[in-house]
Amino acid sequence: MVKKETPSYENEPVNDLIVFGIYSVLKSDKDCVFEILVKECFTLFPRAFSFNSYPDWPDSRKLDRPLRWLRKEKFISGDPKTSFTLTKAGKERAIIIEKRLRQKKLNLF
User: Fold this and answer.
1) In 3D, which of 60, 91, 90, 88 has the Cα closest to residue 75?
2) What is the pLDDT of residues 65-99, one digit of tens each?
């Protein structure tokens, strides 16, 4: 019997994964438009951002409420019709998340 490995990001809050996704896109000098953010989050964290019935497909609905919460709490600015960016607090949070993810050896870098 083959045991499936549990991703090390599984216990991370979705909001933190999204902040890190935005940070990752912005570090690559791209505009963080919604479609690119969906792709980035799904690529980095596929089990967190996929359809339950179709794990190979990204589910953009999983970003909707967390993005609104992150904007309300002033970690991000922007919206799905334009693009997203991190506020000062968001960037500070992203750096902390990056360190935490590196410690878990996710091989993201």
Assistant:
1) 90
2) 999 999 999 999 999 999 999 999 999 999 999 99
C-alpha 11/C-alpha 19 separation (Å) is 15
Q: How many whole angstroms separate alpha carbon 61 and alpha carbon 44?
A: 17
As a whole number of angstroms, the distance between CA 42 and CA 18 comes to 10
Residue 45, exposed/middle/buried by CB under 10 A (0-12, 13-18, 19+)?
Answer: buried
The pLDDT assigned to 107 comes to 53
| Measured distance CA(100)–CA(106) in Å, rounded | 10
- Cβ of 104: how many Cβ atoms within 10 Å? 13
Token duo for residue 13: 């809050």
What SS3 state is found at 82? coil
Q: How far is CA 13 from the centre of its chain?
A: 10
pTM of the model: 0.88
CA dist 15 and 48 (Å) reads 11
